[in-house]
Amino acid sequence: MSFGQRVDLALADKVLKVAVERTAGTAEAKRALAVEAFPAFEDARTRAAAIKDHVIAHLGHYLEMFEANAIAAGAQVHWAQTADEAATIVVDLCRKAGAKSVARSKSMLGEEIGLPHALAEAGIERVETDLAEHIIQLAGERPSHIVWPAMHKTREQVSALFRAKHRDPHVEETIAAMAESARRHLRAEMLGADVGISGANFLIADTGSICTVTNEGNAELSVVPPRVHIVTAGIEKIVPSLPHAIHMLRMLARSATGAALTQYTTFYTGPKREGDRDGPEEMHIVLVDNGRSAMAADAALKEMLRCIRCGACMNHCVVFRQVGGHAYGGTYPGPMGAVLTPALDGLSANRDLAHACTMNGRCQEVCPVKIPLPTLLRGWREKSWREGLEPVSMRQGLGLWRQAVLRPRLYRMASGATVRAMRLLARQGWIARLPFAGAWTKYRDMPAPEGGTFMAQYAKGRRR
Amino acid sequence: MTARDAILGKLRAPVPLDLAAQAAALVAGSERPPETAGSPVERFAARLAGPSVSATLDRIDDASGLPDAVRRYLAHHALPATLYLPPDSRLTSLDWRGFRIDEAVAADQMTALAVAKAGVAESGSLVFETDASAPMLPNFLTLHHIVVLATADLVETIEDISVDLAEHRAHYWVTGVSGTTDIEGQYVRGAHGPRYLHVVMVG
Q1: Which CATH number fits the domain B37-202, given the four candidates 3.40.50.10420, 3.40.630.30, 3.40.630.10, 2.40.40.20?
Q2: What is d(CA B94, CA B85) in angstroms, rounded to the nearest whole number?
Q3: How far is A122 from chain B (nearest CA, A)?
Q4: Is there a contact between A277 and B170 if contact means CB atoms under 8 Å apart?
Q5: Strand B154-155 vs strand B118-120: parallel, antiparallel, or unpaired?
Q6: What pairing do the DSSP bridges indicate for beta strands A209-214 and A195-198?
Q7: A19, A219, A237, A447: most buried by Cβ count inside 10 Å?
């Protein structure tokens, strides 16, 4: 299905718009309050961007430092160049551990490398422990947001799903009762898992620690009881030390949910120590490149490696708010997804994403690490043009326009004639049907132009 | 060539001699949210009471009053006098007569007690580390989590927590009860972990 077809489906789905609006609207309001209470937030964004730029410039150095310290703490470090390599490493580790079931704590990298699918193919039962991931696992769907993967579901849909799939579902029709139903259902499955799999929000180079943040506490319940803990992390997640992580954590929680910190912020350094009462016997960290080293070497794209996956850009995006996350087609939706997906999966199949943008700049304004997302999207548009990926109609249309615009007198005559013709078509200031734009006016009226072309008005103003 | 060598090969860049100093300079004077009015204890208490942490607070003069403080809490919530205690001599040495003390945590454990290493006034966070006397799982399994914090262990900001991550398997900050906004963005308490967080400050 093409991007256009997915957008058509999304726009026709009335329930989807309600669901996206409920969560994204709340997130937008909460973030605004959090930023208002942190007057130095603008300077903090500049600092966060500088920290990430420093790391990206010295990524190899910090990765080697992280690896050495993680190994010294007793963890085993694995490297994967591609998504498939990473998924294979994780599946092999699960097999070696004799795992029948794994408890998984939400990680977008896990989605990126196709872990749910790889585990299913290997016949390993996967217990998604994040409430939203649990919902979409039951529904057999994919995440539609990087912080709220089940954003596209209304409470009514979740209720029906839990009643159909939970052993002991909720009675009362409230969100609290639904969450309680999931708690009952998931607890036993979580505690009985052989392997716990998590992502990492940060990798701390100078100690070899990994950091996870959750509000539910599901990451800890997923990775502390099993005998083996597997971490999958993108290589850009690294920070030099804990103070750097602290600064990024302040930015992450406020930008994502408007909280000062997430409820649970946990640092793990190696497996269980001698004398420890709980924790895994083995800890494996899979460092995943999957296109990131190429992005680090690409002047136009390396700023995208600053991303800390807070989701603020999509919560504030007028396009995302209309179509939701699934329309984007990739692992990552919204503005950050529109930049990242062509880098991960190739431009030719994803060139439409860069066009699904009004260039209003909201994403860049709220980004905690100041990624110039509109500029990066424009970069993809230019590349798509240079590589001849834009359709013939677009190329020819722009070619014609170019011919006209290079002849100012001709251009002014043509645009003046268009304005006059549009006025003739208007009834009471509105045009109900416009030749060559029938698809546009099929669902809405076009306002009739007022006061002539820009150049005509400009000339009039100068004479005055 | 291994995947490791291939990845690192693409990321080779000269390492300046003062890289560590550059990294340190990046976090010198990190921006923080402004301090609200009051002493650190008052600010911490205000944070605990706020909607994002939503914990309750009790204060006692010295640790010998802890069993009574726990009794008060359990009675208030009409809970049985059954308690998981970690093998921490600061807790086990107290007089727990009248309680049933569990030394292992059950999957449906109702209440667990733990000692925090520190509290943070900036965020209302409680800081924990794992070791032989401090398991981690009980603090995430139970419905009611009661945390003991010495007033002297309260610090102003997150950076003030004294920590060497390499020293313990897990170092973690608890900033509120387990919660979720995964259904329609609406906040619900008690997602997988504790629904109630109760702090007893000593001293």
Answers
A1: 3.40.50.10420
A2: 11
A3: 23
A4: no
A5: parallel
A6: unpaired
A7: A219
Alpha-carbon torsion B88, A280, A247, A62, what sign?
Answer: positive
Q: Per CATH, is A32-293 categorized as 3.40.50.10420?
A: yes
DSSP letters for chain B: --HHHHHHHHT-----TTHHHHHHHHTTT---PPPPSS-HHHHHHHHHHSTTT--EEEEESSGGGHHHHHHHHHHHTT--SEEE--S-HHHHTS--TTSEEESS--TT--EEEEE-SEEETTTTEEEEE-BTTB-STHHHH-SEEEEEEEGGGEESSGGGS---GGGSSEEEEE-SS-EE-TTTT--EE-SSS-SEEEEEEE-
ipTM exceeds 0.85, yes or no: yes
Mutation for testing the A interface, residue in B11, B43, B168, B173 having most A CBs under 10 Å:
B11
Which A-chain residues 435-464 have CB contacts (< 8 A) with chain B?
none
Return the domain boundaries, chain B. 37-202
Element (H, E) at A210: strand A209-214
Q: Kindly list the domain boundaries of chain A, sorted by start residue.
A: 32-293, 408-463
Residue A177 distance to chain B (closest CA, Å): 9
**Residue A25 neighbours by CB distance under 10 Å:** 13
Contact between B185 and A266 using a beta-carbon 8 Å cutoff: no
Q: Are A214 and A262 in contact (CB under 8 A)?
A: yes
Total length of chain B: 203
Q: In what order do the strands lie in the sheet with B196-202?
A: B56-60, B196-202, B144-150, B111-115, B82-84, B100-102
pTM: 0.94
| Cβ-contact A329, A6 below 8 angstroms | yes
Q: Do B170 and A79 touch (CB under 8 A)?
A: no
Instruction: From first to last of the 464 residues of chain A, give the pLDDT tens digit.
Output: 889 999 999 999 988 998 999 899 999 999 999 999 999 999 999 999 999 999 999 999 999 999 999 999 999 999 999 999 999 999 999 999 999 999 999 999 999 999 999 999 999 999 999 999 999 999 999 999 999 999 999 999 999 999 999 999 999 999 999 999 999 999 888 899 999 999 999 999 999 999 999 999 999 999 999 999 999 999 999 999 999 999 999 999 999 999 999 999 999 999 999 999 999 999 999 999 999 999 999 998 999 999 999 999 999 999 999 999 999 999 999 999 999 999 999 999 999 999 999 999 999 999 999 999 999 999 999 999 999 998 898 899 999 999 989 999 999 888 889 888 888 888 888 998 888 888 888 888 888 888 788 888 888 888 77
